[in-house]
């Protein structure tokens, strides 16, 4: 140590100041970043995505459902805040699958919030091994398992919710539908079908003329 050197060798050695990392040499910033010297003369990793392979110059829709000015802007956001962010499809994010061209073998699906996403469909589902796996979709179709329902959702291009567990029955009211614990049957007069849903506390009394538009494109008072 320096103390032992001073005691046994008659003073401090001929020291020179440490460089303290004043160079970007041997600094590995990782993919999408590069090392630059800041105003204080210290090395700093900054975003510098590789845009050499970008051919599309227009806006793109990210996997976070947000529209970016171009792919360069998305790559900078990926570097700064969201390392899992990728381009979903070219063009602005849309509410329908019209004019959405998904890359590769992925399919366009509109989710329950009416946003279009590109997803890869799982086209192979294991055979149902138990009647307990049956699900009744809110489209009135019985699916052998949750995998089969997700597959149908993907291939159809729009969300198919689960109405209730088990096979679909020709019910005329909620009295014929048995829901699992914690759920209550809600009847849809428009489709003539019931579905089991988790109900929260009763809604407060709405004021006159305070109608709202829901994600199913239905106006509710």
UniProtKB/TrEMBL annotation:
Alphabetically ordered keywords of this record: Disulfide bond, Glycoprotein, Repeat, Secreted, Signal
Broad class of where this protein is predominantly found: secreted
Gene3D superfamilies tied to this protein: 3.30.60.30, TGF-beta binding (TB) domain
Protein name, per record: Follistatin
Matches recorded under SUPFAM superfamilies: Kazal-type serine protease inhibitors (SSF100895)
One GO term describing the cellular component: extracellular space
Biological process, per Gene Ontology: cell differentiation; negative regulation of activin receptor signaling pathway; regulation of BMP signaling pathway
Annotated Kazal-like domain residues: 46-95, 119-170
CDD domains: KAZAL_FS (cd00104)
GO MF annotation list: activin binding
């Amino acid at each position: 140590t320096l103390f032992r050197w001073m005691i046994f060798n008659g003073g401090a050695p001929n020291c020179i100041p440490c460089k303290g990392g004043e160079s970007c040499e041997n600094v590995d910033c990782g993919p999408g970043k590069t090392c630059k010297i800041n105003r204080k003369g210290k090395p700093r990793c900054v975003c510098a995505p590789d845009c050499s392979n970008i051919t599309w110059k227009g806006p793109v829709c990210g996997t976070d459902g947000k529209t970016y000015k171009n792919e360069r802007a998305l790559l900078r956001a990926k570097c700064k805040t969201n390392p899992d962010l990728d381009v979903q499809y070219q063009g602005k994010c849309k509410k329908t699958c019209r004019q959405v061209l998904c890359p590769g073998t992925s399919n366009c699906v509109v989710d329950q919030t009416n946003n279009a996403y590109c997803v890869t469909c799982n086209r192979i589902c294991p055979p149902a091994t138990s009647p307990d796996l049956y699900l009744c979709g809110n489209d009135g179709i019985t699916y052998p398992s949750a995998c089969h329902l997700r597959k149908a959702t993907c291939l159809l291009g729009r969300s198919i919710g689960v109405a209730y567990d088990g096979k679909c029955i020709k019910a005329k009211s909620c009295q014929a539908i048995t829901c699992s614990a914690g759920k209550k049957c809600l009847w849809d007069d428009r489709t003539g079908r019931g579905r089991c849903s988790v109900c929260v506390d009763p809604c407060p009394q709405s004021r006159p003329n305070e109608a709202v538009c829901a994600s199913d494109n239905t106006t509710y008072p």
